[in-house]
């Protein structure tokens, strides 16, 4: 990811751990299904870009076994240090500005990374360059503009407030250079970079404990910036968090676009 000074959801905050856990619960099943379909096997070399937490690199390490190798990188590796003995390597790395940390990978995977990287085109090119001939790239990014509501069933004032705060959050993201429509461009970008066998699909979780945890942690992380920017008041944020805790809301995520392609042999 880009430097945290420009990243709204700072991975050094305590809420980051809650967010990582919620995102894993929501999207790991889809991510793992895609990677299994690509044929991951013992002995594969994998690069997990912007890993954040340990859930994906741990799963990859179990799949590739002792004959394989998993490298997990991020600009902030503090959430992975406790799992450094879990069968994968942890390295601090900024994919937007640094050269790839090696090459010859059978699989390169990034989830919710490129949309936050100002140098996203360079980062995508770096990931592709690190693939071996025949290796697979799997990139997964949200597309908030494809479905912009946190409460698609806007049935009352609690839901309207939730969606108002989500619009405020998107305003902050756009001001930080986040491309809110990036997810939908992935298939075209992968084909344009020369990958073959490109396909894509989308995951759109709605309602459940993980959606609630994700919303609570995200709002807690951004509330000070929302208030400082004059986009929301502390009273609005408190009222929304009370509504979330009371179970009044059917909360949804932005669609997660997963796109994959193979480097020509």
Task: Please describe the topology of this protein.
Layout: H1 15-37, E1 45-49, H2 55-64, E2 69-74, E3 89-92, E4 105-111, H3 120-129, E5 131-142, H4 157-175, H5 186-192, E6 196-203, H6 209-228, H7 234-245, E7 256-262
Parallel strand pairs: 1-2, 1-4, 2-3, 4-5
Antiparallel strand pairs: 5-7, 6-7
Helix pairs in contact: 1-6, 4-7, 6-7
Task: Give a verbal description of the structure.
The chain has 265 residues and is an alpha/beta fold. The protein has helices spanning 15-37, 55-64, 120-129, 157-175, 186-192, 209-228, 234-245, and strands at 45-49, 69-74, 89-92, 105-111, 131-142, 196-203, 256-262. The chain has a 7-stranded mixed β-sheet with strand order 3-2-1-4-5-7-6, sandwiched between helices. Strand 4 (105-111), helix 3 (120-129) and strand 5 form a beta-alpha-beta unit. Helix 1 (15-37) crosses helix 6. The longest helix has 23 residues, at 15-37. The two termini are 29 Å apart. 43% of the residues are buried.
Classify the beta-strand content into a percent band: 15-25%
Fraction of helical residues: 25-40%
Shape category: elongated
Beta strand count? 7
What is the count of helical runs? 7
């Amino acid at each position: 990811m880009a430097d945290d000074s420009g990243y709204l959801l700072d991975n050094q905050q305590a809420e980051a751990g809650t967010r990582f856990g919620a995102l894993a619960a929501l999207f790991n099943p889809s991510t793992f299904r895609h990677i299994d379909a690509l044929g991951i096997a013992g002995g594969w070399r994998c690069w997990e870009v912007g890993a954040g937490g340990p859930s994906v690199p741990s799963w990859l390490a179990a799949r590739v076994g002792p004959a394989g190798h998993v490298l997990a990188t991020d600009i902030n590796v503090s959430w992975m240090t406790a799992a450094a003995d879990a069968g994968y390597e942890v390295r601090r790395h900024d994919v937007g500005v640094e050269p790839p940390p090696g090459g010859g990978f059978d699989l390169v995977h990034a989830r919710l990374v490129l949309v936050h990287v100002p140098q996203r085109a360079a980062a995508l090119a770096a990931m592709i360059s690190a693939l071996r001939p025949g290796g697979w790239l799997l990139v997964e990014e949200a597309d908030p503009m494809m479905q912009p509501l946190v409460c698609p069933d806007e049935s009352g004032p609690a839901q309207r407030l939730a969606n108002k705060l989500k619009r405020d959050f998107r305003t902050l993201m756009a001001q930080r250079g986040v491309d809110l429509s990036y997810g939908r461009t992935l298939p075209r970008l992968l084909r344009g970079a020369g990958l073959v066998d490109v396909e894509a699909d989308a995951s759109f979780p709605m309602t459940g404990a993980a959606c609630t945890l994700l919303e609570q942690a995200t709002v807690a992380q951004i509330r000070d910036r929302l208030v400082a920017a004059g986009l929301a008041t502390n009273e609005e944020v408190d009222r929304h968090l009370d509504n979330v805790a009371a179970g009044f809301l059917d909360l949804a995520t932005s669609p997660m676009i997963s796109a994959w392609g193979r480097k020509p042999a």
